[in-house]
Amino acid sequence: MPKNGEARVLPIYQSTTYKYDSSEHVGKLFDLAESGFFYSRIANPTVDAVEQKIAALEGGIGAICTSSGQAASTLAVLNICNAGDHMISSAAIYGGTSNLFGVTMKKMGIEVTFVNPDASEMEIQDAFRENTKLVFTETLANPTLVVSDIEKFATLAHKNGVPLIIDNTFATPINCRPIEYGADIVVHSTSKYMDGHAVALGGVVVDSGNFNWDKGKFPGLTTPDESYHGMVYTRDCGKAAYLVKARVQLMRDLGLTPSPNNAFLLNLGLETLHLRMERHCSNALAVAKWLKINDKISWVNYPGLESNKYYPLSKKYMPNGTCGVISFGIKGGREAAVKFMDGLKLAAIVVHVADARTSVLHPASTTHRQLSDAQLVEAGVTPDLIRMSIGIEHVNDIIADLEQALACVPE
Ligand SMILES: *Cc1c(COP(=O)(O)O)cnc(C)c1O
What we know:
Its cofactor is pyridoxal 5'-phosphate. The protein is an alpha/beta fold. The protein has two domains: 23-269, Type I PLP-dependent aspartate aminotransferase-like (Major domain) (Aspartate Aminotransferase, domain 2, 3-Layer(aba) Sandwich), CATH 3.40.640.10; 274-406, Aspartate Aminotransferase, domain 1. Helices cover 38% and strands 14% of the residues. It is built from 16 helices and twelve strands. It has a seven-stranded mixed β-sheet with strand order 1-7-6-5-4-2-3, with helices on both faces. A five-stranded mixed β-sheet has the order 8-9-12-11-10. Helix 6 links the parallel strand 4 (132-138) and strand 5 (164-167). Helix 2 packs parallel to helix 11 and helix 14 (333-343) packs across helix 16. It is globular and about 75 Å long. The chain binds pyridoxal-5'-phosphate (PLP). Residues 68-70, 94, 96-97, 138, 142, 167, 169-170, 189, 191-192, 201, 203 line the site of pyridoxal-5'-phosphate.
C-alpha cells in the first residue's frame, strides 16, 4: 500500500542497482542482517510487491517471481533436489514441465517417476524410493483438465517425509488454494490467467511455510551453505528457509529473474483476476453445455460438466468453477476440425491459452502435426480434438461464432 503522497499505482523500479550511504550498510544487506535491495537479480521493489500480493492470494508466507513458468518449476525442484535424487510427478502435467523433468533434469542426474494421477494411494506409494525428494502435480492439468486429488497426494508425500509441489496455473488461487489442502509449495506460470492479457511471460514459487525440512532428507537446507558464509537456512531463517535458499543461492546463481516491467504488467492482471476468472468459468460452462447438445460435436471435456469424470473432485477443490479451457471433438475428424477452425471469426487460432480473448487450437494440424492418426490417439490427442480457451467476451458472441463456424462443416 502506498504511503501518504506516494504513487497510487505500483511504480516500475527500472533499476538493476540501489544506492547506499555506507559500505557498512551494504555489508549488513549481504549478511541478511537488514532487509533491503542491492541487485535486481536477487530482488527488486516492483517484483517484491507482486510477490507479496501472490503470496497473500495463495495463503503462503512468501513468494519468488521468476522469468517464466518453466523457471518457477526449475527453481522449485532444484532448491531441494540434487544429482542422484528422485522425484514423483503426475503423468498428467503440462508438456513443457514433462520435458523439463523427463529430459533436462534427467540429464542433470535427477530421476523422475511419472504416475497416473488417478492411481490409488497404494500404487503411488510403490513409486517412492529412499532418495525421493518431492511429489509434483497440477491442480487442473493443462491440457487434459485432469483434476488432482490434492489431499491424496499431500498425504502420500507427507507420509514419506517429502513436500508436495503443485502447479496451480489453470485454477489460480481464485478457484483453488492448494495450501489449504496440504500442498507445501505452489508454482504458477503467471503467463496464463494471472497476467490474463498475453503480454508477459512469468512464473512464481509460493511457500506455505508449513513443511518441516529438519528431518535429515534435505541437507541443503539444514547444513551450512559455504557459498553463503555458512548460513544454515532452517536454523537462521526458520519458516522462510526454503524461500531464502531459493533466493540467495539459486536466484543468485541461475538468474531466473523477471523484469520489473513484466512484474508491473503482471500486477495489472492480478488486479482483475477475481473478476476475469468468474467470467471465464461461467462462459466456459455455458459453451460446454451448448456444445454437448450440438449434433456436430461428438464429445466435450470440461470438469464443470456434471457428466465429467472429474466433476466430484472439481466440486471438492474448485467449488466456484475450474477454468476457461475446454476440449471437444468434432464429428468428421481432422478434416471437419480444420473446416470449423478456419470458419471462426471471433476466436483466434493461437498456441497460447488462458487469456482474456477466446482462442482455439487444433493440435493434430499444429503442435502434433508430425504424428499419424494412430500416434495421436496414443498421445491422448485424438485427430478430432479441438482445444478452446474461452475468453471474457459476452457469451452470446462466443456461441454465435461457434454456431456460424459449425455451419461451415458439412453434415
Ligand atoms: C504454460 C504453463 C507452464 C509453463 O509456463 P511458461 O510461463 O510458458 O514458461 C507451466 N505449467 C502450466 C500448467 C502451464 O500452463
